[in-house]
Amino acid sequence: MELLKLVRKRSFLSELIYTALNVALAVAVLLVVLYTESAWFAIALVVLSKWRVFAVRPRFWWANLRSNMVDFIVSVSVVLHLTAINNAPIKESSKLLLLVIVTLAYVVWLLFIKPRSKRTFVAAQAGIATLLGMSALFAVSYNWPASAVVAFAWLISYASARHILSSYDDETYNFFIGLAWAVFVSEVAWISYHWAIAYPLPFFPSLMVPQVAIVVTLVSFLAFKSYDSFYHHSRVRTNDILLPLLLTISVLLVLLVVFNRVGTAI
Question: The pTM is what?
């Protein structure tokens, strides 16, 4: 009985330490962005927080890097979005509110979304990485060469695809499916680089959401539902993808037909 109490006490203590460290990381990232007005120091802090990736034998480094890549993409994207908000020409009160909201969302990611291993959460993790990663990439790459944008888009899409595909047992084809999907997203990124459109946030018109981030996330969701249907039934059932397909088509039509009239090129 005493042993059970000790185990529970240690479990509670470890959970408390885990929670405190993750909250401290999110707050530290916010403070670094606020006081340095630069993303590089905050990105360095995120990299340092991943020290456990290399705290094993070298032969396990690649596996750890691959499993932590989605979290790294989300974390760096949060840093870039915090920096963009901090440098935006908006009122200080509104700026502080947005910074706090993004930081709280990062805490939710670290504590409640990232640790989950259920396939629904794994899909959500991949979707969040795609949305934040692509939006952050196109927010900062307006003066980059096209090759760099395509390369980072490939990395984001491949890491996200492999993340969700790793929850399935069909390892033989998952590698090639991930590569094919990354090539497709890279082509979309190349087109979007030459025809970039972004939409201003309500009440904060100086902050933009790139169209490509929304489009790639929606199409990724549709692709995931199609693969999941094929995996379980050896064919893509209409009932499984009908709602995702209607959602994707509806949002794309609204973006391309309606909002393109008020969109802003970046």
Answer: 0.91
